[in-house]
Amino acid sequence: MASPDIAVILDNSKELDKLRKEQDEVLLEINKLHKKIQSNPEMVEKPGDLTRLKFLYTHAKELAENEVNVSSMLLSQLDTLIPSGQPGQQRRRIEGGEQKKKRTKADSDIPRVSPSMRNQLEALAALKGEQVAARVTSDDADKDEWFVVKVMHFDKETKEFEVLDEEPGDDEEGGGQRKYRLPYSRIIPFPKRNEPSGAQDFPPGRHVLAVYPGTTALYKATVVNPHRKRKTDDYLLEFDDDEEDGSLPQRTVPFHRVVALPEGHRQ
After folding, report:
1. In what helix (H) or strand (E) does residue 251 lie, and over which residues does it extend?
2. Which end of the chain is less packed: N or C, by CB atoms within 10 Å?
3. Which among 114, 24, 19, 112 has a CA at the least distance from the CA of 74?
4. DSSP characters for 84-136?
5. Rounded to two decimals, what is the model's pTM?
């Protein structure tokens, strides 16, 4: 018959196995939701989907922390059952156990990155050399300012972009090219001109963020042209605050210079 100590160890082993299975299930749910959002970007505008994704990541973090706690408990319980042996052997065993605990703690300090998140980081890093839309103003600014910039580098650790404003406006201080270091949340990739199938299709009446013709600045606009037959067709837009002679002129913008309007946009 198993001793009480062994019985407790077996129970903890079962708990550890259960935690790992739950983690696999949660990661599977996260991956499914990521694919769903990637295949239909309009879902990002639905708070329910983002709330669900946040809950899944929070739950995955809790499960990972519980796994570390149970693993540490099992290590301690096993240490109490291993015979002490000779003094020299005891010293080596303790040192090995301490190193294992330190290693376990160090591993627990490293953020767990799911395969989908790793793929996302790789995709962001692949934007190097590409032009993207970037919000260069801070969160507490009175209004958002978006410009077309070139990606110089993406830091996977800090999740920050180093970008270059190649054509600053005449009112910019210095008048020369300007660099920014921005979190990835302030960057929106443009649709690829040679891959129109991956571009989002905005229906008439949809508010978007688009490059104003003849500039490198992006502003809020409304899609006014009938449903486009092809994704490569230009958009016909009416930009906010672009009034001429009492009406808003309709301006043509290429599809690869139009992106979804960020939530909470201020203009």
Report:
1. strand 251-253
2. N
3. 19
4. --SHHHHHHHHHHHHHHHHHHHHHHHSPP--HHHHHHHHHHHTTTT-EEEEE-
5. 0.56
> Among 213, 152, 157, 198, which Cα is nearest to 179's?
152
| Confidence check: pLDDT of 216 > 90 | yes
In 3-state terms the chain splits into helix, strand, coil percentages (rounded to 5) of 45, 20, 35
Pick from 73, 96, 82: nearest CA to 14? 73
Q: Which residues contact 130 (CB under 8 A, 6 or more apart)?
A: 150, 151, 189, 190
Q: What is the mean pLDDT of residues 206-231?
A: 92
For the stretch 129-184, pLDDT in tens is 999 999 999 888 999 999 999 999 999 999 999 999 988 765 555 567 899 999 99
Other beta carbons within 10 Å of 187: 19
The DSSP bridge partners found for residue 209 are 220, 259
Nearest to 231 by CA among 255, 209, 252: 255
Q: What digits encode the pLDDT tens for the residues 69-90?
A: 667 666 666 666 665 544 444 4
The C-alpha angle 117, 151, 157, rounded to 5 degrees, equals: 40
